[in-house]
Design brief:
Layout lengths: L5 E4 L18 H8 L3 H10 L3 E8 L2 E7 L1 H9 L20 H10 L4 E8 L6 E10 L8 E8 L1 H14 L10 H18 L3 E9 L1 H8 L1 H17 L6 E6 L2 E7 L5 H13 L4 E3 L2 E3 L2 E8 L7 H18 L3 E2 L2 H22 L3 E10 L5 E12 L3 E3 L1 H11 L2 H23 L6 E5 L2 H6 L2 H12 L6 E5 L1 H6 L1 H13 L3 E7 L6 H6 L4 E4 L1 H4 L6 H16 L3 E4 L5 H10 L3 E2 L8 E2 H12 L1
Bound molecules: ligand C2E and calcium ion (2 copies).
């Protein structure tokens, strides 16, 4: 007989309470059959049942099998270790050893039924049974008897197990996935609490992996990920756990001595193991990674919090270029940013943002040629929040898309209202800022078109201001979008010109109407000869390319005169007006038109 590990699991509260009466357990007709002295009839009956059944009696305080059905014998055949098939000695051909004492105890008790699970054997060959003991009624004189039934649940249990292990595994690398990693961290947290075993979580993020993936194709990308996984494993010590959390994000659970220097050393090992380029066919690919480290501490009570801390550290690592460890201020800043994001989302939804309008002055005529629309957020508690603060939050969170669409609609609607108020088409346009992120994520052409249709404003009275970063990210894509916008007669201005790195050759190929020279060149012009030279060069370039020019941040009369002398077309700045609420901007315009 094979020595097999057999385990009996009695679920708490299940099967331990006696049932009301035996008739609740077996229908009366069955009981009669089971009690019948005509054993052939009884045997025939239980042989028809599909589950393994034995009837056991307590004779001389020992459980013996009175009878068993065919299914029971079949089970015994297959599993010699579990049930002895040999019924040679009629009384003792028995139930497996571990089951015996349970049946014995049951028959000695006054319980009417008991159910429990039983596991026989280990691992793959192990089997699982749902076992039920049900007392049989009989005359007083009869020995206590019960029916033992066994349902083989092996398939079901194994199915559940394999499903679970699939759910905990990353199919590409075979590594634990996020769910499994979280479980590992949770159990490490338990050890930390009970035994004070310190550990750290490291996140490894492959920088620019999506670019590589696009470049080499997803199959080769998969191969790359597998290679990276192998290398990372080679940098680990026994007992450390590597997991793949997402496409290009790996995590390591690291047991360390008390301080963080060991974790940082491991982080550098991770980076080092990826430093040699990876061969993929003919290609040699250099993979860079950012590593963020977070140490377990008693302040942390959820695995996700620890992982998030490592994420904060990783964010800094991406900027600094070397491994970083989490610091408490990381999450404070992130939380503040997050709450700002939540409030901004709400403000957009509730239409609580406003536009301010700053006049653009034609330097040749001194007239107002248009207004730049600038977003304003009056926060109920925090007061005015600068766009310099909330636009980056909007860009990072994706809120820039609804915000940008709102700005387009609100600006054109305002101009249409002014027209109505004036009873004429005013000789001005409105300029709206559109972020590079919006060009990447939104259908800007459709958004512009919708704003024009809704307001009834002609395309030539709308100007889109974009920054050089729009062009840098996707030069060909942006060219098509700008052409489509231009086809709607909408004007296009290159904002903050001079601060980015877009190539002049490229500017020439784009339908740009206006160059806006950044304030940082205009403001120092009076003191700084270099600035004058730059502005002069930009003005020359613009006229060569057939573009007009706007100077930003004009604060003094002298600057106005200098710019006129240099041949700049339009100026904008505090000297003329600050960005004004819509009604004041309208009044400003009407006054200067009179
Ligand atoms: P920007 O497009 O360069 O806007 C010009 C900024 O210069 C505005 O700041 C304006 O108030 C300020 N300014 C104008 N004249 C002067 C001056 O004479 N002196 C000084 N010191 N500053 C002057 P603001 O309104 O704080 O906007 C900051 C930035 O936020 C804008 O820079 C723009 O990039 C962004 N922004 C504002 N509204 C929107 C929007 O609706 N959508 C997008 N995507 N970005 C926006
Ligand atoms: Ca602007
Ligand atoms: Ca600007």
């Amino acid at each position: 007989m094979r020595a097999a590990k057999t385990q009996i699991v009695i679920p708490a509260g299940k099967g331990l309470e006696p049932a009301a009466s035996p008739t609740h357990i077996l229908p009366v007709a069955f009981q009669e059959l089971l009690d019948t002295p005509r054993s052939a009839e009884r045997q025939e009956f239980i042989d028809t049942l599909p589950i393994a059944i034995a009837i056991v009696a307590l004779v001389d305080r020992k459980p013996i099998i009175l009878t068993r059905n065919r299914a029971f014998l079949q089970l015994a055949d297959r599993r010699g270790s579990f049930i002895e098939a040999d019924a040679g000695s009629d009384l003792c051909a028995g139930i497996a050893l571990p089951l015996l004492p349970v049946v014995e105890a049951f028959l000695l008790s006054d319980e009417q039924e008991r159910s429990f699970d039983m596991e026989e054997g280990d691992g793959i060959s192990g089997r699982h049974f749902a076992i039920r003991l049900a007392r049989l009624s009989g005359s007083e004189s009869q020995a206590p008897r019960c029916m033992v039934s066994l349902i083989d649940r092996t398939q079901q249990v194994e199915g559940e197990r394999s499903l679970r292990s699939q759910m905990l595994r990353d199919s590409l690398t075979g590594l634990p996935n996020r769910a499994a990693f979280t479980e590992q961290v949770e159990s490490a947290m338990l050890n930390f609490e009970t035994e004070g075993r310190q550990f750290a979580v490291l996140l490894v993020d492959l920088t620019r992996f999506s670019r590589v993936n696009e470049g080499v194709g997803s199959l080769a990308g998969d191969e790359l990920i597998i290679t990276v996984a192998r290398r990372l494993i080679s940098a680990l010590r026994a007992g450390d756990v590597l997991a793949r959390l997402a496409g290009d994000e790996f995590a390591v659970l690291l047991s360390v001595a008390d301080d963080s220097s060991e974790a940082m050393r491991a982080a550098r090992r991770m980076q080092a193991c990826l430093s040699t380029p990876i061969r993929l066919g003919d290609l040699e690919i250099k993979i860079d990674c950012a590593v963020g480290v977070a140490m377990m501490s008693s302040a942390i009570d959820a695995a996700d919090d620890l992982i998030r801390n490592a994420q904060f550290a990783m964010k800094r690592a991406k900027q600094s270029g070397h491994a970083e460890i989490y610091q408490a201020c990381d999450s404070t800043a992130a939380r503040q940013r997050f709450s700002l994001e939540t409030e901004l989302r709400r403000a957009i939804e509730r239409d609580q943002l406003q536009l301010a309008f700053q006049p653009l002055i034609d330097l040749n005529t001194g007239r107002v040629s248009g207004f730049e629309a600038l977003a304003r957020w009056e926060h109920a508690e925090k007061g005015t929040i600068s766009p310099a603060e909330f636009i980056p939050v909007a860009e990072e969170s994706g809120l820039i898309v609804p915000l940008g669409r709102w700005a387009l609609r609100a600006a054109t609607r305002t101009l249409a209202e002014w027209d109505r108020k004036a009873g004429m088409q005013l000789p001005v346009h409105v300029a709206v800022n559109v972020s590079a992120v919006q060009f990447q994520r939104d259908d800007v052409v459709a958004a512009v078109n919708a704003a024009l249709m809704e307001s009834g404003i002609g395309g030539n009275r709308l100007k889109i201001e974009l920054t050089e970063s729009c062009i840098v990210s996707d030069p060909d894509g942006i060219a098509n979008v700008l052409r489509a916008i231009h086809d709607l007669d909408v004007l296009i201005a290159m904002d903050d010109f001079g601060t980015g790195y877009s190539s002049l050759a490229y500017l020439q190929r784009l339908p740009i109407d206006v160059l806006k020279i950044d304030r940082s060149f205009i403001a120092p012009m009076l003191e700084d000869r270099d600035s004058v030279a730059i502005v002069r060069a930009v003005l020359g370039l613009a006229s060569a390319l057939g573009m007009t020019t706007t100077a930003e941040g004009v604060e003094t009369q002298e600057l106005v005169e200098t710019l006129i002398g240099l041949g700049c077309d339009v100026a904008q700045g505090y000297y003329f007006a600050r960005p004004l609420p819509a009604d004041q901007a309208y009044a400003y315009l009407r006054e200067r038109m009179a």
